[in-house]
Amino acid sequence: MKKLLRFSALLTLAALVMPALAAAFPVKTEAPEAVLSPAPLYDKTAAESPSAIVTEQKGFDESASVTLWNGSAVETLSLRDYLEGVLAAEMPADFPEEALKAQAVAARTYALYKAALSNGEAADVHHGAQLCTDPAHCEAFLDLAAQASSLWGGGAEMYQERICRAVKETDGLILTYGGEPIAAVFCAASAEQTESASDVWGEEMPYLISVPSPGGQDCGNYFGETHVSLDDFRAAMAARHPDAAFSDRPEEWISQADRSPAGGIRSLTVGGTKVKGTELRQCFGLNSTNFTIRVEGDELIFSTIGYGHGVGLSQYGARYMALSGETFEAILSHYYPGAALTEKTEGV
User: Fold this and answer.
1) Mean predicted confidence (pLDDT) in 252-281
2) Residue 7: which pLDDT band, with cuts at 50, 70 and 90?
3) Does residue 179 lie in a domain region?
4) Relative orientation angle of helices 2-16 and 97-118, to the nearest 10 degrees
5) Is 348 part of a structural domain of the chain?
6) Count of the separate structural domains present in the chain
7) Is residue 218 part of a domain?
8) Residue 212 burial by CB count (10 A; 0-12/13-18/19+): exposed, middle or buried?
9) In terms of Cα–Cα distance, which of 68, 104, 70 is closest to 84?
10) Residue 70 lies in a domain
11) Residues near 42 by Cβ (< 8 Å), separated by ≥ 6?
12) Which of 27, 126, 190, 238 is 20 to 30 A from residue 322's alpha carbon, by CA?
């Protein structure tokens, strides 16, 4: 449990210092063991098809309940209602159905993972609730029934139905490793490879390793630029790293970039001081840690690739795979290798 809590704390700290993304594309929410090769997502001897699994578990989400800190009060709602609100807030409702199903399973898994932690030492983080609506800490959430019209106008009924169907048709399905719900984090769009948890947060997780991820370029924020004045950059870094020294040549301020195999900046040297890529991302509101830097006039320009922390399921990668004919099971197996798709029958 201590290892679980330590990783959750790292994940929470990383998320809290990251820039707030649009509601539809939030950045996201244990015990490290040896990396395993991908395993079958479910036991076909127990059910002949995915639909058989869904039938057996139909009704779990409705019977289970969670407590949620909504920013002003704690409320209790069914897991089904919670997941429908999360799915509507986290992924565009016009994404392919198999991508929506994959997101529903990831959201259900992450909710149970966080709820288990909140039942222990972290209960005070949510004012006594199991979960919260802050996407930087748990998952984004909206009241689907109340906000459907404002979200989708004349298409509200159709899109609401798609959201509800994705939750219903994956009822009770979660991803597990060692019999426990995994930290099924996700992002809007990774680069061509997802990042590993160890490269981003320093904690190795066997099911959060780097895998190929096509389709990210379809995200409108896949390529980004952030302009920071030289004075602002120097001031921000000096405040965080008093020992950093800055010469009269800005081109010499930054050096020795250490990149992950997926392209993200693990660390670099700023003014002679080692700085993590996640710190620069947080400090200057960068879309990702996969960036290059150039000096133009009195500015530093960060050019980023990807949108989010890049770990786990890439939503635009899921979209690409679904459009290519892949099932939600295949999508989940790809982005969380070694995790098993498990039938949840009781408890939260």
Assistant:
1) 97
2) low
3) yes
4) 120
5) no
6) 2
7) no
8) exposed
9) 104
10) yes
11) 50, 53, 329, 340, 341, 342, 343
12) 27
Whether residues 243 and 276 share a domain: the answer is yes
- Residues 316, 257 within the same domain: no
- Its domain, for residue 281, covers 223-305
Name 273's Cβ contacts closer than 8 Å, sequence gap at least 6.
Answer: 237, 241, 243, 244
- Same-domain pairing of 38 and 89: yes
CA angle at residue 166 from 160 to 167, to 5 degrees? 95
Residues in the chain: 348
Query: Both 275 and 323 in a single domain?
Result: no
**Cα distances (Å, whole numbers) of residue 141 to 36, 302, 314:** 33, 31, 19
> What is the CA angle 113-328-136, rounded to 5?
40
Q: Are residues 35 and 172 in the same domain?
A: yes
Q: How would you class 103 by CB atoms within 10 Å of its CB: exposed for 0-12, middle for 13-18, buried for 19 or more?
A: buried
Shared domain for 176 and 296, answered yes or no, is no
Compute the mean pLDDT over every residue in the chain, rounded to the nearest whole number. Answer: 85
pLDDT digits (tens, 9 = 90+) for 15-47: 443 333 333 333 333 222 222 223 333 332 233
> Based on the domain organization, do 190 and 238 belong to the same domain?
no
Tokens, residue 220:
């409108």
Q: Dump pLDDT digits (tens) for 208-260.
A: 999 999 999 999 999 999 999 999 999 999 999 999 999 999 999 999 999 99
Helix (H, G, I), strand (E, B) or coil at 319: helix
The answer on 230 and 139 residing in a single domain is no
Residue 87 one-letter amino acid = L
Q: Alpha helix locations (H) across 119-177?
A: 144-152, 156-168
Q: How far apart are CA 150 and CA 184, in angstroms?
A: 29
Distance CA 243, CA 329 (A): 50
